[in-house]
Model the fold of this input.
Amino acid sequence: MLRSISTAPSAFNRSAALDRFRRARARTRALFDLLDPAAYFEKPIALRNPIVFYEGHLPAFAVNTLIKKGLGRPGVDDHLETIFARGIDPEAEAAAVARGDPAWPGRDVVLAYARAADALVEDAIAGGDVVRDDHPLLRDAQAVWAIVEHEEMHQETLAYMWHRLPYRSKSKPEHYLTLPPRLSAGSPQAARVRIPEGTATLGTPVDDKTFAWDNELPAHNVDVRAFEVDVLNVTNADFMAFVDAGGYGDPRWWRKEDWAWVQEERVMHPAFWERDSAGWHWLAMFERVPLPPDWPVYVTWAEAHAYARWRGRRVMTEAEFHRAAFATPAGRDRRFPWGETLDRAAERGNLDFARFDPLPVGAFPGGASAFGVQDLVGNGWEWTSDVFAPFAGFTPLPSYPEYSADFFDGQHFVLKGASPMTARGLVRPGFRNWFRPRYPYVYATFRCAQDA
Done:
């Protein structure tokens, strides 16, 4: 049953928007600076463009969206703003090859373009006519928030690419520890909790004073039956039992199309694992380490569902995630699992690029929900069982109309929460992530649930 929630527009703060834009651009530059220049034209994930594309795509998207379409002003370079225009993953590698520009510009050219584009965008945010009710891209400063959040989302997908580069092609930041000793002890004992029946609020009310993507709208309530869910995410050790039991060799646990993938690709374990004569290892961002048994397992939707079936259980629905994360026994929703603000976020979860890798499950008891479920935001996106689809009343976002609509194809599934490399500006209850069920590069984990 769906019940609509009334919404209202929010105010625009130029100073806050400019600060967030600058922070996003600085983080992007820092990510690219981790790479060896020799890797600039590499394509570490076959279904993506080469690395050079993304350093040009982010400023080009900002210019195309805010400066050209929004304000009707000229951009910086029409050619670059054409070849860097769109960065969506295609379905097949042949399509990825076909759309590429065989003569990508060098980094000096891309950086010069980015500096000019940033200057245009900063000037527009600081003093331009970026808030206008008579222009769909500028209503409530939509284009400004779209370009900022677009960049923040791409930062995480850049990390997926960086993760697949050889270690020699990237530099570990000074003082970064893949395995922090103070958090390397065992995790809390696994347990389940019962979430009582009640209402889940899906989507983002506009009166939240925050930007929302079209797939988050309209906000509405859904009735959810009581269910049981694990307090902790499935760990590497938990998942190892499935591997050892021959789970990748038994078609009973897989959908037909997922079983075909397992056989054709010879999938025998999660993509972040590797085995040699010394045993099992985790492919961390900057080095290979012994497989941490208490870290959350990162898997595809297909692997998560196979494991859950093997356990005689299932993965949560999107509405169940909202109940477990944001609802309270008193019937009032929280903005975050732990409360109303992101203050002291570093004590609540592993998010906002605090790390390039996970931490043990249950490492942030201060981030638990009102029902005691841990790590719902941070340390890994959580797969749900829901196909990514529009809410009733969906309307494409004028500033980026293809953002969601291109993926309402029945072939993508919803993820909720956040990973270690999800920007804090994207950490809101209504935010929805989505990927194909067999895409292996996402920082995505899961937990098991069952009907109560």
Q: What stands out?
A: Residues 2-169 form a domain with the Four Helix Bundle (Hemerythrin (Met), subunit A) fold (CATH 1.20.120).
